[in-house]
Amino acid sequence: MESVLADCSASISELKKNPSALIELSDGEPIAILNHNRPTAYLIPAKTYEAMLEKIEGYQLGLIIKDRQSEKISAVEVTLDEL
């Protein structure tokens, strides 16, 4: 059996009937969309999705910064006049 990673769930039939009502009821939380009692998708409001993307982007930038900090050892210091 698959885990449902949301506190709320709805069937695909319920989603088809009134998607706006489901989004309103979710209060920003994900809703597992079930097909034959198995999760097939997760419905999240746009603000929640945008916040997730911002966090992912921040995490990825942090990884880039961490990688580049190790390159400081081979950096060559120059002045603006030398450029």
CATH fourth-tier homologous superfamily? YefM-like domain
Average pLDDT taken over every residue: 91
Strand arrangement, major sheet? 1-2-3
What gap, in angstroms, lies between the N and C termini? 63 Å
Radius of gyration: 22 Å
What's the architecture, going by CATH? 3-Layer(aba) Sandwich
Are there runs of 5+ residues with pLDDT below 50, and where?
none
- What portion of the residues fall into strands of 2 or more residues? 15-25%
Q: Using the coordinates above, name the CATH class.
A: Alpha Beta
What CATH calls the topology is: YefM-like fold
Number of individual domains: 1
Overview of the molecule:
The protein is of the alpha+beta class and 83 residues long. It has one domain: YefM-like domain (YefM-like fold, 3-Layer(aba) Sandwich). 46% of the residues lie in helices and 18% in strands. The chain has three helices and three strands, in the order βααββα. A three-stranded mixed beta sheet has the order 1-2-3. The model has no long low-confidence stretch (mean pLDDT 91).
